[in-house]
Write the structure tokens for this entry.
Amino acid sequence: MTTFTIRGKNVEITPALRDYVEKRIGKITRYFDSVGEISVLLSVVKERHLVEVTVPVQGVLLRGEEASHDMYASIDLVIEKLERQIHKHKTKMQRRFRDGTLLDEAFASPSVPAQEDDEDDYPIVKRKKFVVKPMDVQEAIMQMNLLNHDFFVFRDADTEEVNVVYRRADGKYGLIESDNK
């Protein structure tokens, strides 16, 4: 039984809407033997109905986001996007896990055909090297802003862990911390 966390922002989660989300988004679980808790955020911003879905599957996160003028249409669009991700990346993810056992165990349905891809999986078009200096979060944000970048990699002066600060779409800042447990 798959569990859902369904949250609403500027929208009431009615029983009908909850049922529709669980029915439609629950369909992607047929591709996997084991799925973690599916997180769904429904929001309305300036007449745009936005649906964000995150599905944890055996250490891999599937994520989709879609918006339209109708919440039910947005739900349908995000399902299509997630299914395309599953089909497109199954072979690439299997290659990434070398022998494929992790993904073969995760994918339950043989209806997901493996797609061969002659191109590089994710071609690197540019490389940069730089020294990761120890600093606090506020100094890292200042450095990011001075460089006019959207993210900045730094070593936390207190923990010595490599972290990343980034500028969010809402103009605020986020922090990605290492978790070496």
In short: The first helix runs from residue 15 to 26.
